[in-house]
Structures are given as structure tokens and as C-alpha cells.
Design goal:
The chain is globular and about 50 Å long. It contains 13 helices and nine strands. With 285 residues, it is of the alpha+beta class. β4 and β5 form a beta hairpin. It has two domains: 164 residues, Regulatory protein AraC (Jelly Rolls, Sandwich); 97 residues, Orthogonal Bundle (Arc Repressor Mutant, subunit A), CATH 1.10.10.60. α5 packs antiparallel against α6 and α9 crosses α10. The strands form two sheets. A five-stranded antiparallel beta sheet has the order 1-8-3-6-9, with helices on both faces. A four-stranded antiparallel beta sheet has the order 2-7-4-5.
Length: 285
């Protein structure tokens, strides 16, 4: 079953529907490329396995795993088995923002520390029941289901709280790893501040660390990838996402949106990271 076109069609409508549930997902839309989603995505693996990177960290998907992909972060799918099958629950930016204010624990930070959680069979069945209820309400119009949005927000909030309970033991292990915690905070800062600064010193200062210690910690957390490399790869991935999603965007406009002061500076950066110019990437300059 080819899920790419249905995926793209439904995801494009999410800002109006706020929640999209995709079933029988057998593969990712792209492989061996960085992908940045503007939405929050739960991936519940029912069968098989898949492998990839999330913020340059290994993210293996296996049966009974739930992956939480935060908006703005980098997903790099590498492979999936022939029998891979998953359910994808996607939330709009609006419902995620409201969820941050209305959830009971406000504990979304743990999704940055540990994006993968392995559930028991009984927990998976409970998760599927919750997804089915969410899917049923999401399929209704406001006329069919008064207070549809409020109900979706409440249901997603309950689902998040149950997931927090499911992953309690795993969280203890991740929170005890100081370098992982710092790297997670660094990733979040890059997502929010990459237009403001691409300098390592800026992020070290934000985390109240010396540049030397900060750089050492990031290399420890990423198995040798420097903070500079991570920032550059992230900005390049954002550039590709903007080029792909806005075919008529000029490089001058893209330069401004990414926080570069000059078009020539951005073009040099893009070629240094990707090996090609923005024009060769296939978009107008």
C-alpha cells in the first residue's frame, strides 16, 4: 500500500482538522534525508521494525514502541523492514500549543530526552483504544460534534498523561544522564533560536556552561558530533524544508527567513554543508 500521497494530502489539511490519524503506515515518505516536521507526531509500531536518527541520535522503532517526534526537530529515516506497520497520530501546532497550557503535568520535556518508549502488550492495547476514540472525534465536523476541538484537546491530554505513566522507569534512566539532558536542552534552543544565532558560544551561554565544557558534553552525547556540526546540519535541513514546501520562494526570501544577513553568505553556507548550490537544489534564485 502506497501511503505517501494519502499522508501528504491529510497532513496538509491538519491545520484545519488539528488531528490526523494514519493507519497501516508501511514506510516513511523519504529515506536517508533529514526531515523536519512542523507538527507533533506519535508513531506506534505494530509490526516489524524501522531505523533512523532523531536529532542525530539512534532511534530504533520496534514492535510495541511509541516514538514522539517533536515539531522542528530533525528526523532522518534510514530503513524499514518489509513487514513494518505503524499508526501515526499527528497534532497541529495549535493543539500542541494549547496542550502545553492545559495538560496536567506540563511534562513534554521528557519527549526530548527519550523519544522512544517500549510498551507492554496491555499498554499498547490501551494506547490503541485512546487513538481510536481520538480518531472518531477527529472525523466529526463541528456540526456533528459540538465542542469538537475541546474534546480533542482533552483526549490528547489524557493520552499524554497515560504515556507519561507508561514510560516512568525509562525516564529515570534518561534523566540521570547529564550529557543527554544538556544535549536535549541544546536541541530545543537551536529549534527556537537558530535564526538568532548559529554560534556555539551563544548556546553555551544560554545553558550557563563554558564553551569548552559545552562542546565536550555535546560530543559525548552525540558520539563525536560537534555542536557546530549539529547547528549547521539543522539549519541546512530547515533550508531544504522551506525550499521543498515553498517552490516559489526566492533565495533572497529564504536568506531572510533563516536569519542570514546576505544572500551570498547563505549560498556559501548551503554549498558547504550540502555540496550543491541552492540553484542546483532545484529552486529559483
Amino acid at each position: 500500500m502506497d501511503i505517501i500521497n494519502p499522508y501528504e494530502r491529510q497532513i496538509r489539511a491538519i491545520e484545519n482538522t488539528h488531528v490526523v490519524v494514519l493507519r497501516d503506515v508501511h514506510h516513511f515518505p523519504i529515506y536517508n534525508q533529514d526531515f523536519i516536521s512542523p507538527h507533533f507526531e506519535f508513531v506506534l509500531t505494530e509490526k516489524g521494525s524501522a531505523d533512523g536518527l532523531y536529532d542525530m541520535q539512534e532511534m530504533p522503532l520496534v514492535k510495541n514502541s511509541i516514538a514522539c517526534i517533536m515539531p522542528g526537530h530533525v528526523l532522518h529515516p534510514k530503513s524499514s523492514s518489509e513487514d513494518f506497520q505503524a499508526i501515526l497520530l499527528v497534532l497541529s501546532q495549535k493543539i500542541l500549543n494549547d496542550l502545553l497550557y492545559h495538560s496536567f503535568s506540563h511534562d513534554f520535556q521528557k519527549f526530548h530526552y527519550a523519544p522512544i518508549c517500549i510498551l507492554t502488550d496491555s499498554q499498547i492495547e490501551e494506547a490503541k483504544v485512546m487513538i481510536k476514540i481520538i480518531e472518531t472525534i477527529a472525523a466529526c465536523s463541528e456540526e456533528e460534534q459540538p465542542h469538537r476541538y475541546g474534546m480533542l484537546l482533552a483526549l490528547v491530554s489524557v493520552a499524554q498523561e497515560r504515556l507519561n505513566v507508561f514510560r516512568k522507569e525509562q525516564d529515570k534512566e534518561w534523566y540521570s544522564n547529564r550529557s543527554t539532558a544538556i544535549f536535549s536542552q541544546f536541541c530545543n534552543l537551536v529549534v527556537s533560536d537558530f535564526r538568532t544565532s548559529r554560534e556555539v558560544n551563544y548556546y553555551a551561554q544560554k545553558l550557563n556552561l563554558s564553551p569548552k565544557h559545552f562542546s565536550k558534553v555535546i560530543r559525548q552525547a552525540t558520539n563525536g558530533i560537534s555542536a557546530n556540526e549539529w547547528i549547521d546540519q539543522y539549519v541546512a535541513a530547515q533550508a531544504k524544508r522551506m525550499l521543498d514546501s515553498n517552490p516559489t520562494m526566492t533565495i533572497q526570501e529564504l536568506t531572510y527567513r533563516l536569519g542570514f544577513t546576505e544572500e551570498a553568505s547563505f549560498c556559501r553556507f548551503f554549498k558547504r554543508i550540502t555540496g550543491i548550490t541552492p540553484k542546483q537544489y532545484g529552486r529559483p534564485i
